[in-house]
Design a protein that fits this description.
Ferritin; elongated; mainly alpha; binds fe (iii) ion; single chain; 7 helices
Length: 216
């Protein structure tokens, strides 16, 4: 930033500054993801991060295409926000030993990264559209879609397999969702059958009660 003048004068300047900010952030994420993969003991989570690492490599290239469309050299501008999010993630991961606690933590820490990216790409896409850069907006939208999908995938893994062990309300919600789910052979799963027989006596009691009311 200039000492006597302000560098961001127009919307176009703000847009380019935003591109440089996210270009720095994506490159920083590229360096941080292998550490998160290493800390994760859960196979599905590990694979998810590996997929996103490949996507991130492609997102960097996509941003380079956007810079080229504007006849600019791809250049990063230091982003203190992503530096802070990643530093915090590394600090927290460094304090955890238990693998189950680590998996839960890593998901939340990674989601902080995804949410930052979602806010930036959302704004950049809107600005590109407003400035008439339709092709750039399209490319930015592709990345935004990937960041949102990654965030949703992390939420799904947490709710389905990782958080339930420690969070009873989440486990209850997950059970409700799977209730009545059938196996490919059309049979109810053992868990749902067990649950049904467990709830049967309660239903009988209700029926008996209403029958008694009818007789009265
Ligand atoms: Fe990204
Ligand atoms: Fe930033
Ligand atoms: Fe991402």
């Amino acid at each position: 930033m200039g000492l006597f003048s302000k560098d961001i004068k127009t919307m176009e300047d703000l847009y380019v500054h935003g591109l440089q900010d996210i270009y720095y952030a994506e490159n920083r994420i590229l360096r941080a993801l292998p550490k998160m993969i290493e800390k994760t003991a859960d196979g599905e989570l590990k694979r998810g991060f590996q997929t996103h690492l490949k996507e991130t490599e492609n997102q960097v290239k996509r941003l380079e295409r956007v810079f080229a469309m504007h006849d600019r050299e791809a250049q990063g501008h230091k982003c203190p926000a992503i530096d802070g999010i990643i530093r915090e993630a590394e600090d927290v991961m460094g304090e955890i030993e238990d693998p189950a606690v680590m998996n839960t933590a890593v998901i939340a820490l990674a989601q902080a990264v995804e949410h930052y990216e979602i806010t930036r790409y959302g704004a950049l896409m809107a600005w590109a559209t407003g400035l008439g850069h339709r092709q750039s907006a399209k490319l930015l939208a592709e990345t935004l879609k990937e960041e949102k999908a990654t965030d949703a995938k992390l939420t799904a893994i947490a709710e389905r397999r990782i958080n339930p062990r420690g969070d009873k309300s989440t486990a209850r919600r997950a059970r409700k969702k799977t209730s009545g789910r059938k196996t490919p052979a059309g049979k109810k799963t053992t868990r749902s059958v067990a649950r049904r027989s467990a709830s049967r006596p309660a239903r009988k009691t209700t029926r008996r009660k209403s029958a008694a009311r009818r007789h009265a």
